[in-house]
Amino acid sequence: MKTRLSLFIVLVFSLSLCTVTEAQIENPFKKIKKKAEREANKKVDEEVDKAFDPDKKAKDDEQKSEQQQGQQEEKADAETQAESKESKKPELSWAKYDFVPGEEVFFEDNLEGEENGEFPSRWDIYSGNVENAKLGDDKVIMFREDSYIMPYLENADKPYLPDVFTLEFDCYFYEEENYQNYTVLLYDKLNQKWIDIPELHIYWNKAVMSRFEGWYPGANISTYSKIEGWRHVSISFNKRVLKVYLDDTRLLNIPNLKVKPTGVSLWGEYNQYNIQSGYIKNIRLAKGGVKLYDKMMQDGKIVATGIRFDVGKATLRPESMGIINTIAKMMKEHPEIKFSIEGHTDDDGDLDANQKLSEERAKTVMDKLVSMGISADRMSTKGFGESNPIATNNTAEGKANNRRVEFVKI
């Protein structure tokens, strides 16, 4: 009897548990439906409240207006910060740029005809790993490791830099790499004996050579601007004086280097942590450095291979302004001087197109001088296309010398 009673109690208790569980369980779709109904009712109540309570409606509208104003202010602050960041960038005027390239190019590499992924054919290497590449639309030499390269020249084991020469190249800097630099050695590290000459280090905002240091205006050790892009480096040596320019400004003027440069080696940096390579392009070595006025008096003309244009166009490149500024100054100091400005090209491309291009380039130079205050009646222009070469068109250096603007005294 006790056993039957115990079984009965257990059965009743189990049934009660099942009943409670079923009462507590609710269909999940019913929950969703109820939640939707509550949200809808809430919105209806809010609209009713607004209709019968104008103050509440005004308060809600004011809150909404404040939120929109806050969003607009945040947007304006972001734009102001962007403008402030942009204003940190140095403004390149080139108005006082006085670098004048040597008149005869003896090494030129614009990477024409090079294949991506191959070693640059006009260079030799001491250490590291470099190859041809493209950065955007630009053909470049890419440093895949920290590397030293030097121009591939005949008899490179002997000094090949004259007493007066210029070196130019473009190098790329990254936005966040404030300490990224390119190094210039003024001897051939692979082929020539080591000489005791300081290394020249080029940063995005300064140049350093031993105890000499020059900063780009507006960029000092405590104000690193976030700038990414190309810098144009120009170096001139005249017997013992070394000058170094970054973009439109001279940063170093060393009156007595004390050691005669014998060759060139370029070092590019590779950042293994950020996986960023160094890049250079438009490398040129030229000899000569007679003052332009003396050259004109001696030869009756000035031959300017350093006035450069975009490929196939009559658009002046900014580094041309060193020569143009010098000629403008000379014409202002000597009002009796008149010039026929004459354009010349190499033989790449169509004959007629080159003729037209040379005329347009001569006109561009004249217009620039007019904009600088030189009277148009003191100048005339001509174009000769590819008809009057002064060097072979079979080498990069020959073509560079043929692409020129001449100022012929009249």
Polypeptide structure, described:
The chain is of the alpha+beta class. The protein folds into three domains: 28-87, no CATH class; 96-289, Jelly Rolls (Sandwich); 290-410, 60s Ribosomal Protein L30, Chain: A (2-Layer Sandwich). The chain is built from seven helices and 19 strands. The strands form three sheets. Strands 1, 3, 4, 6, 11, 12, 13 and 15 form an eight-stranded antiparallel beta sheet that branches. The protein has a seven-stranded antiparallel beta sheet with strand order 2-5-14-7-8-9-10, with no helix packed on it. A four-stranded mixed beta sheet has the order 16-19-17-18. Helix 2 crosses helix 3. The longest helix is centred in the first third of the chain and has 34 residues, at 54-87.
Would you spell out the secondary-structure blueprint of this structure?
Blueprint: H1 2-24, H2 28-52, H3 54-87, E1 104-109, E2 123-127, E3 130-135, E4 138-143, E5 147-151, E6 164-173, E7 182-185, E8 200-202, E9 206-209, E10 212-215, E11 229-238, E12 241-246, E13 249-254, E14 265-268, E15 278-287, H4 292-299, E16 301-304, H5 321-333, E17 339-344, H6 351-371, E18 379-383, H7 396-402, E19 404-409
Parallel strand pairs: 17-18
Antiparallel strand pairs: 1-15, 2-5, 3-4, 4-15, 5-14, 6-11, 6-15, 7-8, 7-14, 8-9, 9-10, 11-12, 12-13, 16-19, 17-19
